[in-house]
Write a structure and sequence with these properties.
The complex is a heterodimer of chains A (434) and B (907). Chain A has 434 residues and is α/β, with parallel strands linked by helices. Chain A has helices at residues 20-25, 30-38, 41-51, 63-67, 93-99, 101-114, 129-144, 175-182, 211-215, 217-223, 225-229, 262-267, 305-310, 329-343, 349-369, 374-385, 392-407, 409-417, and strands at 78-83, 119-124, 160-165, 206-210, 239-246, 252-257, 281-285, 319-324. Chain B has 25 helices and 37 strands. Classes of the chains: A alpha/beta (434), B alpha/beta (907). At the A-B interface, helix 14, helix 15 and helix 16 of A face helix 2 of B.
Chain lengths: 434, 907
């Protein structure tokens, strides 16, 4: 059953909820006032901890616990809102902003208050020009209303929120690369430790949360922990905005409580409304391009962090990609690794060279020039990458090819057998356009 | 920090806390291969070559105590993934495994990955033979690649990063060592990256491109053949080269270098490791500026004047002529009619022989190692006597050290000091700079002081007064140096507030600086050209300050003067000065300084390696007027063209000798090739002339019945066969140089003589920095020897003369216009003459870059094109001190010349 009450897409049905006045009328910024005037930062942290809010960016780490990692007494601190949203298949963040920027602003403000930061940055994917504009206008409105700026509500608490647009790099969604980019440097990940909570932006303690995570905060403060926990499962409370794409009849963003089954998401007339043309499900990628693939046998899995992990994949950012039997696994692996190759920052050897080699080989195989030793080579390449890369981008690039080889080995063997002339040729690869 | 004990492949090793796993393994004699990690830079963990397995003792969650197994051994919890050793600090009880199957698989994998993008063009690559990628592939790599050769990426190459360094993008493994070297060590953030992924590439971000005086070092630390120098590119295979140890004489740092020779030809200059001098770095001047050695215009035979021309002559003819003329002038007019100048780039042996010839044979103290230009540095007697203590090692200084850098621009004057001083600040030391204008070193300073233009002397006096106020009169009275009474009475007369106001520096800042210097365990004052050219009052005050602060005669404390010549210190020590014999034996009746010689109507000049006539009108006139002029040099300089006899001498590559650097470290340089044509060593020439002159004098004396004829046969004291004979005599006769013989110098290089000498292909990759020739010996300063007393009496500050408003600052540039950069790639970097003005002055006078500007002093005037420099203070103009065509020498009136600046309006 569809939700009657939304959390992330709060007051979903109210027309023009994204307008400042409308949002205010429907209880908007009440949580902000409550937090600033009636609660201490520690109270807010505790509420978020108790609510069991987990990071929606991919890792699902408890948000309140993350906030608790900040070293005591070290200031200034920064709050970064990660709206780089570039994982293939993920498209909910900008819709959250387009739909209602004020809920995010309120969430950012309350969270900044909770971690005692006076400056917050919203790092937006470069392509989100329209959303950035919407957000900036909304922030200006919030400043004008006295919800941001100096001495908010006379509490003595100051907060500035800045919107920063990236220049188009997937890697800048990685938290340390995001900070490098925000500092004006080339977007590449940093060594960890030190972790951002200890030494992040400009070397100061920094918390980085996803848009959807922060959008959850105002409703938690407004309606309380118990109400929040009435959604979802015990370990994954609340709702998740799933981005459903692929061969379904109605792709789109759907806010569902955690624990809803994959089958319901795909087949319910409220959500995916079934497969296009009634064709069977072949591949399910439950958490964006970085997630290991699942198959039709997993259709009854509940969508929560633990269940998906138990099935050998991950919920990630909640980008559910459903593909039917017309899709070739070697070709899909090629297309996905082409993405990772294109987005590899180049900093570490296994990712830079590994993705490059994978794509070269997969491209040649798909073009009809597969060789018998290509299959062991592919296994070799991803094994040499797995666990040895600098950040998760390289590890993510392993997933498509590893999944394809594990789940559909016969398709690769078929490519080898149908090799036209048996010659091993390099096929000109369409060059990356940048 | 406490030490940490861990186990690497079963070997137990104890290392300082904070050491990373790669370094710890190395101390356990286990090699972990690396590409991006370099021991002199922050680890980045990019190349993934140093992946190892680590485990730490398991800690019980409840009791927080280590868990032990049945045998009582701690249970080790291994990390699930491999980690990069370079970014992982050691911890107590850590277990590191570098040879397990997983590690080997990862190492092979990384190398196979790296080689997929590599062009495998070793046969034509300059790095071949000293290439870490080759070496590591042989030891850790897979036997063959599964990569399809046709899939290789190709790039346009080579790409010039600047005119000195070329980038081969196909060979580059993107380790960022070059970028990080320029950022972290050189403070020249001129390199960066563009694009990403496989298209990630190194670019130069500066204009002019790769604008760094240390750029050549990036080719040494490049672990592949991606970066090559335009100087050495495709010149030779490295295994054909023989490394000959030498000392760079192009500035006062005294960097240890190797002259890499193929047969008798110099192919390249490389750094030779000496932790106490240049570590493993050299500047581009040292690396690329030695092409003069084989320049086609070098003098090959003696030349003798015949009318207007200089014609080739035999050595015999030339030497006979010299001895005849010099002894005639000596006999007729005495030694006082003869002047001698010897270059501060000559070796100690050359210089000693030269002054000995003058003092003992010609009986003249008219000696100098300077040109005699009005604006040049004084003799810096007190500073020279003090110096820094034996055992000084700037590389070891950090916390607890306060280094004051006054009136110096190290990057231009002695480039390696830039790296060394910056390093002290990076290691937590207190680096205080005081200048009238911003310098590059200032960016690394912990405190920056800015005194007003022309107030150097007020500033140093203020600092001295601030120290005096803190240490008190009592301590000052205990000091047993001469001139203390004058010092005290001068200091008692001056108030800190007045001095501070005159210098334009706040009293608080002066007091804080004085306190920091006094409190420091190690206190060093470094002073450069701008401080020295302000007159001896400045250096005298600095010497008094060091003594008063109790920093004299101690290791890692004292004074360092950035002197203008490569062996200026040796020249000062060994008596190439009119006022003191070797070892600062002050003369009752000093001779003439260079400056005085030009106006004293001397009858003869003997000049070794200096070119005063090039810039100095007064010198040219004096040389033209003299009866007889001898010049021995590498080139037919302007001065040589005026000479009656010109003698060809050898360059540093053909010469064996010792040099004394700014920190009183005597270092030995070896002969790398036979002399060019008929060239002889300076000391040999001087000895031959001395023998002949002595012979004639003896004959004449015998004629007078004073000496028996037997004395003619062997002139006493002139029987040197090798330079080591002279060195032995210096060691015997010159206080301080005692014990510094060639044997002693070479002994310092034996393995184990010092801790950090390394030559491990894996650790420092293929580049050979090996130093087998000794690291030199520091000799004790007068302050460290019991009987030494130093004259600390303050000198009067020069008073500005005339009505002229603007201070003329002569700035020595690293890339100078002297003969020594001849034939090098650096010639393109030598600026033509210019005058730099502040933006304020330029606006006031409506001067735009490129406009012609007239500078008028009390002595003369010059016209120069203008540059406008944003960070120069108003009221100062900057003219390069050592590029041709500035006319500076004829403009300067003495220390702190003042000029009027006039824009020339052309119709």
């Amino acid at each position: 059953m569809p939700l009657t009450e939304h959390i992330v897409m709060r007051e979903y049905d109210v027309p023009n909820i994204g307008l400042f006045e409308v949002y205010l009328e429907h209880g908007g910024y009440a949580a902000l006032r409550t937090a600033f005037t009636e609660k201490t930062p520690a109270d807010v942290v505790q509420m978020v901890k108790d609510a069991g809010l987990r990071g929606r960016g991919g890792a699902g780490f408890p948000t309140g616990v993350k906030w608790g990692f900040l070293p005591k007494g070290l200031y200034p601190r920064y709050l970064l809102c990660n709206c780089d949203e570039s994982e293939p298949g993920t498209f909910n963040n900008h819709q959250i902003i387009d739909h209602n920027p004020h809920q995010l602003i309120e969430g950012v403000a309350i969270s900044a208050f909770a971690i005692e930061a006076n400056t917050a940055y919203i790092y937006m994917r470069g392509e989100f020009a329209k959303s950035a504009l919407i957000l900036e206008q909304a922030i200006a409105r919030a400043y004008a209303a006295g919800f941001l700026g100096k001495n908010i509500f006379g509490t003595g608490y100051d907060l500035d929120i800045f919107v920063h647009r990236g220049a188009g790099a997937y890697i800048c969604g990685e938290e340390t690369a995001l900070m490098e980019s925000l500092e004006g440097k080339i977007g590449q990940p940093r060594n960890k430790p030190p972790f951002p909570a200890v030494a992040g932006l400009y070397g100061k303690p920094t918390i980085i949360n996803n848009v959807e995570t922060l959008a959850n905060v105002p409703p938690i403060i407004a309606k309380g922990v118990e109400w929040y926990r009435s959604f979802g499962t015990a370990k994954s409370p609340g709702t998740k905005c799933f981005s459903l794409s692929g061969h379904v009849n109605r792709p789109g963003n759907y806010e569902l409580p955690f624990g809803t089954s994959l089958r319901e998401l795909i087949e319910s007339p409220h959500y995916g409304s079934g497969m296009k043309g009634g064709r069977p499900v072949k591949i399910i990628i439950p958490g964006g391009a970085s997630a290991p693939w699942l198959t039709a046998e997993h259709l009854d899995l509940p969508l929560d962090y633990e269940s998906i992990a138990a099935a050998g994949s991950m919920l990630g950012s909640g980008a559910v990609i459903i593909l039917n039997d017309t899709v070739s696994a070697p070709h899909l692996a090629y297309k996905m690794d082409e993405f990772f190759k294109h987005e590899s920052c180049g900093k570490c050897t296994p990712c830079r060279e590994g993705t490059h080699w994978l794509v070269k080989t997969l491209h040649r195989m798909n073009a009809g020039h597969a060789e018998a030793d290509d299959i062991p080579t592919l296994h070799g390449i991803y094994k040499q990458m797995a666990g040895n890369c600098f950040c998760l981008l390289g590890e993510s690039a392993v997933m498509p090819i590893k999944s394809a080889l594990r789940l559909f080995p016969e398709e690769f063997e078929a490519l080898v057998q149908t090799n036209g002339n048996g010659a091993k040729h390099a096929i000109p690869l369409m060059m990356a356009k940048h | 920090m406490p030490d940490v004990t861990l186990t690497v492949d079963g070997v137990t090793v104890t290392v300082p806390a904070g050491t990373n796993v790669v370094d710890a393994a190395r101390l356990a004699t286990i090699a972990v291969p690396v590409f991006c990690y370099h021991p002199r830079m922050e680890p980045v963990g990019m190349c993934r070559m140093c992946l190892v397995q680590i485990g730490t003792p398991q800690i019980d969650r409840e009791t927080r105590q280590p868990v032990f197994d049945a045998d009582g051994k701690p249970v080790i919890a291994m990390m699930p993934k491999l980690v990069t050793g370079c970014t992982t600090p050691v911890s107590a009880g850590m277990v590191v495994k570098t040879t397990t199957e997983e590690v080997q698989f990862a190492q092979k994998g990384v190398l196979e990955f790296l080689l997929t993008s590599h062009p495998l063009d070793c046969p034509v690559c300059d790095k071949g033979g000293e290439c870490p990628l080759q070496n590591l592939t042989m030891q850790w790599g897979p036997g063959k690649s599964r990569f399809d050769y046709n899939d290789k990426v190709h790039f346009a190459k080579p790409v010039p990063l600047g005119d000195l360094i070329y980038l081969d993008r196909e060979r580059c493994i993107l380790c960022a060592r070059c970028v990080r070297f320029e950022d972290e060590l050189a403070d020249d953030p001129v390199l960066g990256f563009d694009n990403r992924g496989r298209n990630w590439m190194i670019i130069s971000k500066s204009d002019p491109p790769f604008d760094s005086k240390f750029s050549g070092n990036t080719t040494d630390i490049c672990p592949v053949g991606a970066l090559t120098t335009s100087d050495f590119r495709f010149k030779a295979r490295v295994w054909e080269l023989e490394s000959k140890p030498a000392v760079c004489t192009l500035c006062s740092v005294g960097c240890n270098v190797s002259l890499d020779m193929r047969h008798d030809k110099l192919m390249r200059v490389m750094p030779r490791e000496n932790a106490a001098v240049n570590d493993i770095w050299i500047c581009d001047k040292g690396r690329f500026g030695h092409r003069f050695i084989e320049h086609g215009t070098r003098l090959e035979t003696p030349l003798v004047r015949s009318g207007d021309r200089l014609v080739e002559a035999s050595w015999g003819e030339a030497l006979q002529l010299i001895s005849e003329k010099l002894s005639a002038i000596h006999a007729a007019h005495g030694g006082a009619a003869i002047g001698g100048l010897a270059s501060p780039r000559l070796s100690n042996e050359d210089l000693y022989a030269f002054q000995k010839f003058f003092r003992e044979v010609l009986e003249s103290h008219n000696l100098d190692h300077r040109l005699g230009a009005p604006g040049e540095a004084g003799l810096d007697t007190a500073g020279a006597m003090l110096g820094v203590g034996v055992g000084t090692d700037l590389m070891q200084l950090g916390k607890g050290a306060t280094v004051l850098v006054i009136g110096a621009d190290p990057e231009e004057e002695a480039p390696l000091y830039m790296l060394r001083l910056r390093g002290i600040a990076q290691r937590g030391g207190n680096l205080i700079t005081a200048n009238l204008r911003p310098t590059k070193l200032e960016r690394s300073a912990t405190t920056r002081l800015r005194y007003t233009a022309g107030s150097e002397q007020r500033f140093t006096r203020a600092l001295l007064r601030a120290v005096y106020e803190i240490v008190g009169v009592e301590r000052a009275q205990k000091l047993r140096h001469s001139g203390m009474d004058e010092l005290r009475s001068t200091l008692n007369k001056e108030r800190l507030a007045d001095l501070a106001a005159a210098a334009g520096v706040s009293e608080e800042a002066l007091k804080a600086t004085a306190q920091a210097f006094l409190d420091a365990e190690h206190g060093i004052i470094v002073y450069g050209a701008e401080a020295q050219s302000a007159g001896e009052a400045v250096t005298q005050d600095l010497a008094a300050l060091v003594v008063l602060a109790g920093k004299a005669g101690r290791a890692n404390s004292g004074l360092i003067a950035l002197l203008p010549g490569g062996n200026s210190r040796g020249a000062l020590d060994l008596g190439l000065r009119p006022d003191a014999a070797p070892g600062y034996t002050m003369l009752k009746q000093p001779g003439l300084s260079a400056h005085a010689m030009w106006t004293s109507k001397l009858r003869a000049f003997y000049i070794a390696g200096l070119d005063p006539a090039a810039e100095l009108e007064v010198a040219r006139a004096a040389l033209e007027a003299a009866e007889f002029v001898v010049v021995q040099d590498l080139f037919l300089t302007a001065t040589a063209q005026l000479a009656d006899v010109v003698l060809p001498v050898v360059s540093v590559a053909e010469h064996e000798g010792t040099y004394t650097n700014a920190e009183r470290r005597v270092q030995r340089s070896r002969q790398a090739r036979p002399p060019l044509a008929q060239a002889r060593a300076d000391w040999q020439v001087v000895q031959q002339v001395a023998q002949l002159v002595a012979e004639r004098s003896a004959v004449r004396a015998a004629g007078n019945g004073r000496v028996g004829a037997a004395a003619v046969a062997d002139a006493p004291g002139w029987g040197y066969i090798t330079p080591s004979d002279i060195a032995a005599e210096i060691a015997e006769r010159v206080p301080g140089y005692a014990g510094i013989t060639y044997a002693a110098l070479t002994a310092t290089g034996k393995p184990g003589a010092w801790g950090r000498q390394v030559n491990e292909a894996v650790y420092y990759d293929g580049t050979n920095y090996e130093n087998t020739e000794g690291v030199g010996l520091q000799y004790p300063s007068l302050a460290e020897r019991a009987r030494g007393t130093i004259d600390l009496a303050p000198r009067a500050a020069p008073t500005p003369t005339g009505e002229r408003s603007t201070l003329l600052l002569a700035q020595p540039l690293a890339y100078d216009g002297g003969a020594l950069l001849r034939g090098s790639k650096l010639e393109a970097h030598i600026p033509s003459a210019y005058v730099a003005l502040s933006t304020t002055d330029a606006e006031k006078l409506n001067i735009h870059p490129g406009d012609r500007v007239r500078l008028v002093s009390d002595r003369g005037e010059v016209i120069l094109p203008a540059r406008v420099v944003i960070d120069l203070p108003a009221g100062v103009v900057l003219v390069p001190a050592n590029v041709p065509g500035t006319g500076l020498a004829n403009l300067q009136t003495g220390p702190q010349t003042r000029v009027n600046v006039v824009k020339i309006v052309t119709e």
